[in-house]
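Onboarding guide, step 5: your first structure request.
Type a short instruction followed by the sequence, for example:

Predict the 3D structure of this protein.
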Amino acid sequence: MSRLTFSYRSYTHSMIMFVELVNLLLPCYDYNMENRIIVRTRLVFDDNRHLYYTEDPSILAEPFADLMCVPSKWVRQHFKSFNDITFEFAYNEKTHIEELYGCILDKIGFKKDPRIPRDGWDGANPLRIIEDDMLIGIDDYKHSLEDVLTRYHIKDTLHTVMVFICTAGDIWNDDGLRYYMPSRENCRHKSPHVHVEYKHEEKATVEIKSGNKLAGNMKAKRMKVVKEKILNNQEFLLRCWNDKTDGLSVDINYYLGITPIIENPSF
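The system replies with structure tokens like these:
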């Protein structure tokens, strides 16, 4: 009987200890236990007509270089390595969207926040969440991540994009051909030029004075159209070059041979 009583008391004592331990751990478990979710982030460009993925940073190479504190050449060479990233993110009920956003910037390699305006960059609020057929903008980064995941029934993988405006310096959009000049033009082409893009598939850098292609993969049949348009609008394009870019301003009349510098004038 005493043996039975002893076993019962030991069992009761063990259960009490177990319940006390559970009560002690439960607040920690509910509040501090980290959940994990897979996050996929892609860089998306917005030209006011399309949202699109690309493997070429185009005119955003310079702004991205500034955000990453690296040369623009490095951005062009390594863009594929950071324009589509996947990682695991740990969170709990206190985690805000701001913390997820900071982690995304770190994974991409941005040292500066794209939301903050700076010289040559107007600032942007790039983060969006993709769920089913919705592209969800985040206005308040103090939102709870857990609340957002619950609201949109997101469980295993969170699909996000960083949307960047790609319209700086637009001049014309004509039959699928987009003519533009980035605000930063400290590149290898010293002569005034214009960039032309055809449906995000073909590109060319074209000298304004000659209409010749300096670089790019644009096909000859489209280059013929581009060259004609540029040569017919040289003066206008040179004014755009002086107004829109940080390239050295050129004297338009001198550049086009209208008012050359005369040596030893007879007048």
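Each response can be followed by summary notes, for example: The mean pLDDT is 81.
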